[in-house]
Amino acid sequence: MEQQCVLVVDDEKEIADLVELYLKNEGMAVLKCHDGASALQALESCVPDAAVLDVMLPDMDGFALCSEIRKRFTFPVIMLTAKVEDIDKITGLTIGADDYITKPFNPMELLARVKAQLRRYHRYNTGGEGEAKAASAREHDFLGLVINADTHKCTLYGEVLQLTPIEFSILWTLCENRGRVVSSEELFEAVWKEKYMDSNNTVMAHIARLREKMHEAPRKPKFIKTVWGVGYQIENEG
């Protein structure tokens, strides 16, 4: 397997150097930038396997940078934030971030999060290797939505949806349980493989982003329905 590359964007040199050290110790290449403009410029010549973005940057905030990245790329993005307010976390996830970690952070925890995102990303983007190759032609096709676990491809009315690995996994899980309400707790633990915590808005934020990509009407979605107080459901008849 070729060396994995991680884009690290943080204007605090000490933090950027620390993250770089831990990633390189795991055999990864690091593309290090200290502002959003240089990061976007770097992406013109090199596409990383993942990115770690600080929220507070001198020229643009990390959310804006993440939004720009999501216009072109689906590699996983982890946000670093010194703010603990839920609204910041929700904002980051809604515009396409896959995970977040608050400062100060344990470098080993950040490393574990990066490795988890890389495993998920490459599992779904290797043309059917590993878990995706275990079963053939795993596909759901209904009401104009086609999602295939072997190719990690999803189309809606013929339009290819550029989904991140987590967005794809959420939609696949709901399709696998079509006709049944999947609780936020069940969905979180199925996708993130972690224990669900009370008041966790991560699932809600990703559902909002997924609906946006599917051009769903917020109040009357055709595909992903909200069952208030319970969870989410894709109905058998749409």
Number of helices: 8
Strand order of the largest sheet: 2-1-3-4-5
Structural class: alpha/beta
CATH topology-level fold name of the largest domain: Rossmann fold
The CATH superfamily of the largest domain appears as Response regulator
What spatial form do the alpha-carbon principal axes imply?
globular
Average pLDDT works out at 85
Briefly, what CATH class of the largest domain? Alpha Beta
Order of helices and strands: EHEHEHEHEHEEEEHEHHEE
Main β-sheet, in a few words? 5 strands, parallel
Radius of gyration: 18 Å
Count of all domains: 2
Distance between the termini: 41 Å
Tell me which CATH architecture of the largest domain applies here. Answer: 3-Layer(aba) Sandwich
Helicity range: 25-40%
> Could you tell me the strand content as a percent range?
15-25%
Taking pLDDT < 50 over at least 5 consecutive residues as the criterion, the unreliable ranges are 127-137
Question: How many strands appear in the DSSP assignment?
Answer: 12
Task: Lay out the secondary structure.
Elements: E1 5-9, H1 13-25, E2 29-33, H2 36-42, E3 50-54, H3 62-70, E4 77-81, H4 86-94, E5 99-102, H5 107-123, E6 139-142, E7 145-148, E8 153-156, E9 159-160, H6 165-176, E10 182-183, H7 184-192, H8 202-213, E11 224-227, E12 231-234
Parallel strand pairs: 1-2, 1-3, 3-4, 4-5
Antiparallel strand pairs: 6-7, 7-8, 8-9, 10-12, 11-12
Please characterize this protein's 3D structure.
It is a single chain. The protein has about 240 residues and is α/β, with parallel strands linked by helices. It has 2 domains: about 5-125, Response regulator (Rossmann fold, 3-Layer(aba) Sandwich), CATH 3.40.50.2300; about 135-235, Winged helix-like DNA-binding domain superfamily/Winged helix DNA-binding domain (Arc Repressor Mutant, subunit A), CATH 1.10.10. Helix content is about 35%, strand content about 20%. It is built from 8 helices and 12 strands. It has helices at about 15-25, 35-40, 60-70, 85-95, 105-125, 165-175, 185-190, 200-215; strands at about 5-10, 30-35, 50-55, 75-80, 100, 140, 145-150, 155, 160, 180-185, 225, 230-235. The strands form 3 sheets. The protein has a 5-stranded parallel sheet, with helices on both faces. A 4-stranded antiparallel sheet has the order 6-7-8-9, covered by helices on one side. Helix 1 packs across helix 5, helix 4 runs parallel beside helix 8 (about 200-215) and helix 6 packs across helix 7 (about 185-190). The longest helix has 17 residues, at about 105-125. It is globular, with a radius of gyration of 18 Å. About 35% of the residues are buried. Mean pLDDT is about 85; it is low at about 125-135.
